[in-house]
Write the C-alpha coordinates for this entry.
Amino acid sequence: MAVIGFIGLGHMGGPMSANLVKAGHEVRGFDLSSEALAKAEQHGVNAVGSVPEAVSGVDAVITMLPGGQQLLQCYDEALPAADPGTLFIDSSTVDVADARRAHELAGIAGFGSLDAPVSGGTAGAEAGTLTFMVGGAEEDFARAEPLLEPMARKVIHCGGPGNGQVAKMCNNLILGASMIAVSEAFVLGERLGLDHQAFYDVASISTGQCWSLTTNCPVPGLVETSRANHDYQPGFAAALMLKDLKLAVSAAEQSGTNTEVGRLAAELYQRFNDEGGGGYDFGAIIKLVREHSKPLQETEEAKEA
Protein backbone atom coordinates (compact mmCIF):
# COMPACT_ATOMS: atom_id res chain seq x y z
CA MET A 1 0.00 0.00 0.00
CA ALA A 2 1.12 3.56 -0.71
CA VAL A 3 1.56 6.68 1.40
CA ILE A 4 -0.37 9.49 -0.28
CA GLY A 5 -0.43 13.21 0.41
CA PHE A 6 -3.85 14.68 -0.35
CA ILE A 7 -4.25 18.45 -0.58
CA GLY A 8 -7.79 19.81 -0.82
CA LEU A 9 -10.32 17.93 1.29
CA GLY A 10 -13.55 19.67 0.31
CA HIS A 11 -16.75 18.25 -1.20
CA MET A 12 -14.76 16.19 -3.72
CA GLY A 13 -11.38 15.69 -2.07
CA GLY A 14 -12.83 14.63 1.27
CA PRO A 15 -14.68 11.53 0.03
CA MET A 16 -11.93 10.76 -2.48
CA SER A 17 -9.34 10.63 0.30
CA ALA A 18 -11.70 8.51 2.40
CA ASN A 19 -11.92 5.94 -0.40
CA LEU A 20 -8.12 5.77 -0.54
CA VAL A 21 -8.08 5.02 3.19
CA LYS A 22 -10.71 2.30 2.69
CA ALA A 23 -8.45 0.75 0.06
CA GLY A 24 -5.66 0.44 2.65
CA HIS A 25 -3.51 3.43 1.74
CA GLU A 26 -2.07 5.80 4.32
CA VAL A 27 -3.33 9.30 3.52
CA ARG A 28 -1.86 12.51 4.90
CA GLY A 29 -4.33 15.29 4.25
CA PHE A 30 -4.20 19.07 4.30
CA ASP A 31 -6.84 21.72 3.76
CA LEU A 32 -7.11 25.37 4.74
CA SER A 33 -10.50 24.57 6.29
CA SER A 34 -10.28 23.15 9.81
CA GLU A 35 -13.79 21.75 9.34
CA ALA A 36 -12.73 19.83 6.23
CA LEU A 37 -9.67 18.52 8.05
CA ALA A 38 -11.74 17.34 11.01
CA LYS A 39 -14.22 15.57 8.74
CA ALA A 40 -11.40 13.85 6.84
CA GLU A 41 -9.90 12.68 10.12
CA GLN A 42 -13.19 10.96 10.96
CA HIS A 43 -12.65 8.86 7.82
CA GLY A 44 -9.12 7.81 8.70
CA VAL A 45 -7.09 10.55 7.02
CA ASN A 46 -4.06 11.73 9.00
CA ALA A 47 -4.55 15.50 9.16
CA VAL A 48 -1.43 17.66 8.93
CA GLY A 49 -0.91 21.38 9.32
CA SER A 50 0.76 22.43 6.08
CA VAL A 51 1.45 21.56 2.45
CA PRO A 52 5.09 20.57 3.13
CA GLU A 53 3.95 18.17 5.88
CA ALA A 54 1.46 16.57 3.49
CA VAL A 55 4.01 15.93 0.75
CA SER A 56 7.12 14.96 2.73
CA GLY A 57 7.86 11.23 2.75
CA VAL A 58 4.97 10.15 0.51
CA ASP A 59 4.81 8.09 -2.67
CA ALA A 60 2.35 10.35 -4.44
CA VAL A 61 0.61 13.69 -3.98
CA ILE A 62 -2.98 14.24 -5.13
CA THR A 63 -4.38 17.77 -5.31
CA MET A 64 -8.04 18.77 -5.60
CA LEU A 65 -8.12 22.56 -5.60
CA PRO A 66 -10.49 25.34 -6.74
CA GLY A 67 -8.47 26.58 -9.72
CA GLY A 68 -5.20 27.03 -11.54
CA GLN A 69 -3.88 29.84 -9.36
CA GLN A 70 -4.28 27.73 -6.23
CA LEU A 71 -2.67 24.76 -7.97
CA LEU A 72 0.44 26.67 -9.00
CA GLN A 73 0.74 28.27 -5.55
CA CYS A 74 0.45 24.82 -4.00
CA TYR A 75 3.20 23.46 -6.25
CA ASP A 76 5.45 26.34 -5.21
CA GLU A 77 5.26 24.96 -1.65
CA ALA A 78 4.99 21.27 -2.42
CA LEU A 79 7.74 20.64 -4.96
CA PRO A 80 10.66 21.79 -2.76
CA ALA A 81 9.36 19.68 0.16
CA ALA A 82 8.75 16.41 -1.71
CA ASP A 83 11.13 13.45 -1.72
CA PRO A 84 12.74 12.22 -4.95
CA GLY A 85 10.47 9.90 -6.91
CA THR A 86 7.21 11.43 -5.66
CA LEU A 87 4.46 11.39 -8.28
CA PHE A 88 2.24 14.49 -8.51
CA ILE A 89 -1.37 13.97 -9.61
CA ASP A 90 -3.67 16.97 -9.96
CA SER A 91 -7.41 16.26 -10.05
CA SER A 92 -8.52 19.90 -9.99
CA THR A 93 -10.31 21.37 -13.00
CA VAL A 94 -8.07 24.12 -14.33
CA ASP A 95 -7.15 25.89 -17.54
CA VAL A 96 -5.11 23.78 -19.94
CA ALA A 97 -2.29 26.33 -19.82
CA ASP A 98 -2.14 26.12 -16.02
CA ALA A 99 -2.17 22.31 -16.16
CA ARG A 100 0.73 22.31 -18.60
CA ARG A 101 2.59 24.87 -16.48
CA ALA A 102 2.15 22.57 -13.44
CA HIS A 103 3.61 19.69 -15.48
CA GLU A 104 6.51 21.94 -16.48
CA LEU A 105 7.24 22.97 -12.88
CA ALA A 106 7.12 19.36 -11.69
CA GLY A 107 9.44 18.29 -14.50
CA ILE A 108 11.96 21.03 -13.73
CA ALA A 109 11.96 19.86 -10.10
CA GLY A 110 12.55 16.28 -11.24
CA PHE A 111 9.12 14.80 -10.56
CA GLY A 112 6.65 12.86 -12.69
CA SER A 113 3.23 14.47 -12.92
CA LEU A 114 -0.28 13.98 -14.29
CA ASP A 115 -3.34 16.11 -14.77
CA ALA A 116 -6.29 13.90 -13.81
CA PRO A 117 -9.56 15.82 -13.57
CA VAL A 118 -12.71 13.88 -12.80
CA SER A 119 -16.32 13.50 -13.85
CA GLY A 120 -19.06 12.18 -11.58
CA GLY A 121 -19.64 14.93 -9.03
CA THR A 122 -19.92 14.49 -5.28
CA ALA A 123 -22.02 11.35 -5.66
CA GLY A 124 -19.27 9.72 -7.71
CA ALA A 125 -16.63 10.90 -5.25
CA GLU A 126 -18.52 9.31 -2.36
CA ALA A 127 -19.29 6.08 -4.20
CA GLY A 128 -15.81 5.70 -5.69
CA THR A 129 -17.23 5.77 -9.22
CA LEU A 130 -15.49 8.80 -10.71
CA THR A 131 -14.13 8.90 -14.24
CA PHE A 132 -10.52 10.10 -14.31
CA MET A 133 -9.33 11.75 -17.52
CA VAL A 134 -5.55 11.63 -17.33
CA GLY A 135 -2.87 13.56 -19.19
CA GLY A 136 0.84 12.85 -18.93
CA ALA A 137 3.55 10.35 -19.72
CA GLU A 138 2.71 6.66 -20.09
CA GLU A 139 5.10 5.62 -17.32
CA ASP A 140 3.55 8.10 -14.88
CA PHE A 141 0.06 6.92 -15.81
CA ALA A 142 1.09 3.32 -15.13
CA ARG A 143 2.26 4.32 -11.65
CA ALA A 144 -0.88 6.32 -10.93
CA GLU A 145 -3.54 3.93 -12.20
CA PRO A 146 -3.61 1.62 -9.14
CA LEU A 147 -3.75 4.67 -6.86
CA LEU A 148 -6.71 6.15 -8.72
CA GLU A 149 -8.70 2.93 -9.05
CA PRO A 150 -10.18 2.97 -5.48
CA MET A 151 -11.81 6.30 -6.36
CA ALA A 152 -12.89 5.40 -9.87
CA ARG A 153 -15.21 3.51 -12.13
CA LYS A 154 -12.92 4.31 -15.05
CA VAL A 155 -9.38 5.68 -15.44
CA ILE A 156 -8.60 6.78 -19.00
CA HIS A 157 -5.27 7.94 -20.37
CA CYS A 158 -6.03 10.81 -22.74
CA GLY A 159 -2.54 11.56 -23.98
CA GLY A 160 0.20 14.02 -23.09
CA PRO A 161 0.38 16.78 -20.48
CA GLY A 162 -2.83 18.82 -20.27
CA ASN A 163 -4.95 16.41 -22.30
CA GLY A 164 -6.90 15.29 -19.24
CA GLN A 165 -8.08 18.87 -18.85
CA VAL A 166 -8.88 19.06 -22.56
CA ALA A 167 -11.07 15.96 -22.27
CA LYS A 168 -12.77 17.35 -19.14
CA MET A 169 -13.67 20.70 -20.68
CA CYS A 170 -14.94 19.11 -23.89
CA ASN A 171 -17.07 16.65 -21.90
CA ASN A 172 -18.55 19.42 -19.77
CA LEU A 173 -19.28 21.54 -22.80
CA ILE A 174 -21.54 18.68 -23.91
CA LEU A 175 -22.99 18.32 -20.41
CA GLY A 176 -23.82 22.00 -19.95
CA ALA A 177 -25.33 22.39 -23.39
CA SER A 178 -27.35 19.17 -23.13
CA MET A 179 -28.82 20.16 -19.75
CA ILE A 180 -30.04 23.43 -21.25
CA ALA A 181 -31.58 21.58 -24.21
CA VAL A 182 -33.29 19.03 -21.92
CA SER A 183 -34.63 21.85 -19.73
CA GLU A 184 -35.97 23.78 -22.72
CA ALA A 185 -37.65 20.64 -24.06
CA PHE A 186 -39.41 19.94 -20.76
CA VAL A 187 -40.61 23.54 -20.40
CA LEU A 188 -41.81 23.68 -24.00
CA GLY A 189 -43.65 20.38 -23.55
CA GLU A 190 -45.33 21.39 -20.29
CA ARG A 191 -46.48 24.72 -21.75
CA LEU A 192 -48.07 22.84 -24.64
CA GLY A 193 -49.82 20.36 -22.35
CA LEU A 194 -47.39 17.41 -22.47
CA ASP A 195 -47.09 15.42 -19.25
CA HIS A 196 -43.56 15.26 -17.82
CA GLN A 197 -43.66 11.49 -17.38
CA ALA A 198 -44.94 10.92 -20.90
CA PHE A 199 -42.18 13.05 -22.37
CA TYR A 200 -39.53 11.32 -20.26
CA ASP A 201 -40.82 7.90 -21.30
CA VAL A 202 -40.42 8.88 -24.94
CA ALA A 203 -37.14 10.80 -24.84
CA SER A 204 -35.34 8.39 -22.51
CA ILE A 205 -35.58 5.60 -25.11
CA SER A 206 -35.35 7.79 -28.20
CA THR A 207 -32.76 9.95 -29.90
CA GLY A 208 -32.96 12.63 -27.21
CA GLN A 209 -31.55 10.25 -24.59
CA CYS A 210 -28.55 11.67 -22.66
CA TRP A 211 -27.04 11.78 -19.16
CA SER A 212 -28.73 15.12 -18.42
CA LEU A 213 -32.07 13.40 -18.99
CA THR A 214 -31.69 9.89 -17.61
CA THR A 215 -29.33 10.47 -14.65
CA ASN A 216 -29.76 14.10 -13.55
CA CYS A 217 -33.16 14.96 -15.00
CA PRO A 218 -33.99 18.62 -14.22
CA VAL A 219 -37.62 17.76 -13.42
CA PRO A 220 -38.17 16.16 -9.98
CA GLY A 221 -39.81 12.79 -9.50
CA LEU A 222 -38.71 11.12 -12.73
CA VAL A 223 -35.20 9.84 -12.00
CA GLU A 224 -34.08 8.57 -8.60
CA THR A 225 -30.53 9.95 -8.92
CA SER A 226 -31.56 13.47 -9.88
CA ARG A 227 -30.68 16.42 -7.64
CA ALA A 228 -34.02 17.92 -8.64
CA ASN A 229 -35.54 15.52 -6.11
CA HIS A 230 -33.59 17.31 -3.37
CA ASP A 231 -34.51 20.93 -4.17
CA TYR A 232 -31.52 21.08 -6.53
CA GLN A 233 -28.95 20.82 -3.74
CA PRO A 234 -25.79 20.49 -5.77
CA GLY A 235 -24.14 17.35 -6.93
CA PHE A 236 -22.38 19.63 -9.43
CA ALA A 237 -23.11 23.29 -8.74
CA ALA A 238 -24.15 25.72 -11.46
CA ALA A 239 -21.22 27.94 -10.47
CA LEU A 240 -18.81 25.08 -11.24
CA MET A 241 -20.53 24.41 -14.55
CA LEU A 242 -20.06 28.07 -15.43
CA LYS A 243 -16.37 27.81 -14.51
CA ASP A 244 -15.91 24.79 -16.78
CA LEU A 245 -17.81 26.35 -19.67
CA LYS A 246 -15.69 29.49 -19.38
CA LEU A 247 -12.58 27.33 -19.56
CA ALA A 248 -13.94 25.69 -22.71
CA VAL A 249 -14.84 29.03 -24.31
CA SER A 250 -11.41 30.44 -23.47
CA ALA A 251 -9.67 27.41 -24.96
CA ALA A 252 -11.87 27.66 -28.07
CA GLU A 253 -10.93 31.30 -28.54
CA GLN A 254 -7.23 30.57 -28.09
CA SER A 255 -7.38 27.70 -30.59
CA GLY A 256 -9.60 29.50 -33.09
CA THR A 257 -12.40 26.94 -32.69
CA ASN A 258 -15.97 27.94 -33.48
CA THR A 259 -18.05 26.79 -30.49
CA GLU A 260 -21.22 28.87 -30.73
CA VAL A 261 -23.33 26.45 -28.68
CA GLY A 262 -20.68 26.33 -25.95
CA ARG A 263 -20.48 30.12 -25.86
CA LEU A 264 -24.26 30.43 -25.59
CA ALA A 265 -24.35 27.81 -22.84
CA ALA A 266 -21.75 29.82 -20.90
CA GLU A 267 -23.82 32.97 -21.33
CA LEU A 268 -26.97 31.27 -20.02
CA TYR A 269 -25.19 29.80 -16.99
CA GLN A 270 -23.65 33.23 -16.38
CA ARG A 271 -27.14 34.74 -16.32
CA PHE A 272 -28.36 32.00 -13.98
CA ASN A 273 -25.42 32.63 -11.64
CA ASP A 274 -25.98 36.40 -11.78
CA GLU A 275 -29.60 35.82 -10.74
CA GLY A 276 -28.56 33.81 -7.68
CA GLY A 277 -28.53 30.27 -9.05
CA GLY A 278 -24.83 29.48 -8.62
CA GLY A 279 -25.28 27.47 -5.44
CA TYR A 280 -27.90 25.16 -6.92
CA ASP A 281 -27.24 22.05 -8.97
CA PHE A 282 -26.56 22.83 -12.62
CA GLY A 283 -29.84 21.09 -13.51
CA ALA A 284 -31.67 23.98 -11.84
CA ILE A 285 -31.02 25.90 -15.08
CA ILE A 286 -34.60 24.81 -15.89
CA LYS A 287 -35.69 27.59 -13.51
CA LEU A 288 -34.05 30.14 -15.79
CA VAL A 289 -35.91 28.73 -18.79
CA ARG A 290 -39.24 28.99 -16.95
CA GLU A 291 -38.58 32.43 -15.50
CA HIS A 292 -37.60 33.92 -18.85
CA SER A 293 -40.52 32.40 -20.75
CA LYS A 294 -43.47 34.67 -21.50
CA PRO A 295 -46.62 34.14 -19.42
CA LEU A 296 -49.00 31.81 -21.26
CA GLN A 297 -51.72 34.45 -21.08
CA GLU A 298 -49.57 36.82 -23.13
CA THR A 299 -48.96 34.19 -25.80
CA GLU A 300 -52.69 33.49 -26.06
CA GLU A 301 -53.44 37.19 -26.41
CA ALA A 302 -50.80 37.50 -29.12
CA LYS A 303 -52.47 34.69 -31.07
CA GLU A 304 -55.85 36.37 -30.85
CA ALA A 305 -54.42 39.70 -31.99
Q: What stands out?
A: The mean pLDDT is 95. The chain is about 55% helix and 15% strand. The first helix runs from residue 13 to 22. Residues 299 and 305 are 10 Å apart (CA to CA).
